[in-house]
Amino acid sequence: MENKFLPVTRAEMEERGWDQVDFVYISGDAYVDHPSFGHAIITRLLEAHGYRVGMISQPDWKDKESITVFGEPRLAFLVSAGNMDSMVNHYSVSKKRRSKDSYTPGGVMGKRPDYACVVYGNLIRQTYKKTPVILGGIEASLRRLAHYDYWSDHLKRSVLLDSGADLISYGMGERSIVEIADALQSGIRVEDLTYLDGTVCKVRDREMVYDGVELPAFTELQKDKLSYAKSFYTQYCNTDPFTAKRLIEPYSDHLFVVQNPPAKPLSQTEMDDVYALPYMRTYHPMYEKDGGIPAISEVKFSLISNRGCFGACSFCALTFHQGRIIQTRSHESLIEEAKKLTEEPDFKGYIHDVGGPTANFRHPACEKQLTHGACKHRQCLFPKPCGNLKVDHRDYLKLLRSLRELPKVKKVFIRSGIRFDYVMADRDDTFLRELCQYHVSGQLKVAPEHIADPVLQMMGKPENAVYRAFTKKYERINEQIGKKQYLVPYLMSSHPGSTLKEAVALAEYLRDLGYMPEQVQDFYPTPSTISTCMYYTGVDPRTMKPVYVPKSPHEKAMQRALIQYRNPKNYELVMEALRKTGREDLIGFGKHCLIRPRQTKEDRYFAKKRQQGKGSALPKKKKTIRNTHKKKKH
């Protein structure tokens, strides 16, 4: 293996003495050879197994010649929309076009198409009719079966069908991509690869799949939202690599999409090997003239210590993509990478993050998960921590202490999410104390998401009392160590289950807190989450009970405005929301009020005087007129 970027042109391929590549990798992102980018991991892994890989980043989807740079690959095209779903990358929750794409040179928007996997797949098929096409990455992973698409407001088929691809490598694809490559190398036809864990395939004959659970047919899902809710929950209960069944989704009598069980989690040694591959750890130099790739700044001096999350929030797709079983790298692997970071010429002494989806998860939730899998119908932390949950921060603490002691390291920050309910479940406060002492710089970001328990229940988050207890403990510890540090809560508006009543309660909480968030995340229905299923069907798929869903743009705007009720631009929306909920008591001049009634300057002046108990209740001019009238009468 040569320590340089993979070829991006035919000339670079020929410089290596190759007349053909085994795989052409097409990505919706610019080419960044860093392990925070999925395309870097997959291509380096294939290279480590002896395969020749050429890289085509952000091809011009309007020109079919853009994917012929290397000619036809010997084994297959690999296609990914990039590190984000292309629709999330392009559009805000209000469906307005974003102005910046951090995964594109110079942050320029518009270098990838909407529904990139589908467009790239069909672009390949225009020229290469029979060459295998394998989809991967988060867009394909979360659209692997029938799914609700928020941007078109329709139920869509599996992306496998609409893209013309042959297979999907879903989830974290290290195991499945090597198995696919080895099978193709051995001469097995792609249409016969129907059995690999971590893949989705299509078959023409139902008899080819002998041990699967059959989901409702796509035509039935289109007709009945409740059928979709049931189908989705079946999928949700089959995301564990140890217990999942093979799922079969019929599209006709002669077309079935088959989801094989997820690939097994990587061992610590396997994780270490993946992150030890010879990454260049930056973007390709061809982007320098355009200003580089903005996304690298967020990860260049960060360490990925784990993957997976047993938090299982309803609005998060991690259960479907990385799974609930925690996989970790060894201390040795992370320290070795940290040493490399300190040798970078622009390293300033700060490691920006040590974490993953949830930073303080460093081992499986309980002992049985690595042999029996995660529980199908029970959560590890919700609604209360499971009695079998292993709560222990000692390994993470040991890692952080080792990183702090490295030469040239001034500070180690933690920017990944800290699961505060897991912290509260730990009877030993050592982790929280050291977090405040060494790993926070003035503010700690946490994600309570809401404060109303009915909404938190729909979100799969702990009740508000847990967050309140955490805030008190955080304040107490900071006081003990002599630091003034604050919590910055992430909050979400318009999640299923949130009425205007709960939105007002959240505004009151913020009033009492004296905090006004600069940004508010409106609930974004992305593919393959329980919350998105609620949004589309109006029921909680776990219970099949109806759920209130705020859908109208106007109501969503009111809920969002209530969180930022001090912003003058939100005045009319807040006023309307308070009147609709019968909470006019929050309109006035008292300390508990959110907004004041609209008045003239003179009205406001005398109202203030009345409140202070000074002066007359009448304006001076009116008082003079009345006194004059009395004099004339006498």
From TrEMBL:
Cofactor note: Binds 1 [4Fe-4S] cluster. The cluster is coordinated with 3 cysteines and an exchangeable S-adenosyl-L-methionine.
Ranges annotated as biased composition (Basic residues): 619-634
Record carries keyword Metal-binding: yes
Domain of life: Bacteria
Domain Radical SAM core, first and last residues per copy: 294-566
Gene3D superfamilies given in the database record: tm_1862 like domain
Stored PROSITE patterns: RADICAL_SAM
Keyword Ribosomal protein annotated: no
Family: Belongs to the UPF0313 family.
Name of the protein described by the UniProt record: YgiQ family radical SAM protein
Source organism: Sellimonas intestinalis
Lineage, broadest ranks: Bacteria, Bacillati, Bacillota, Clostridia, Lachnospirales
